[in-house]
Amino acid sequence: HVALAAVADGVSSCKNAAEGAQIACQTIKQIMTQESDYYFSCKQDCVGSLLLNYVCRVLQSAADEAGEDVMSYASTLSFVCLHKKSGKMMVFSLGDSKVFSVGETGIQCLTDSQADENNRCCATVTQGAEKQVQLQVFVYDGQTDYLLMTDGAWRLLYTDCRLRKDLREQIEKRDYCDLASFFENMKPTDDCSYIALQSDRKRSLKP
Question: Is the pTM for the entire model greater than 0.70?
Answer without folding.
Answer: yes
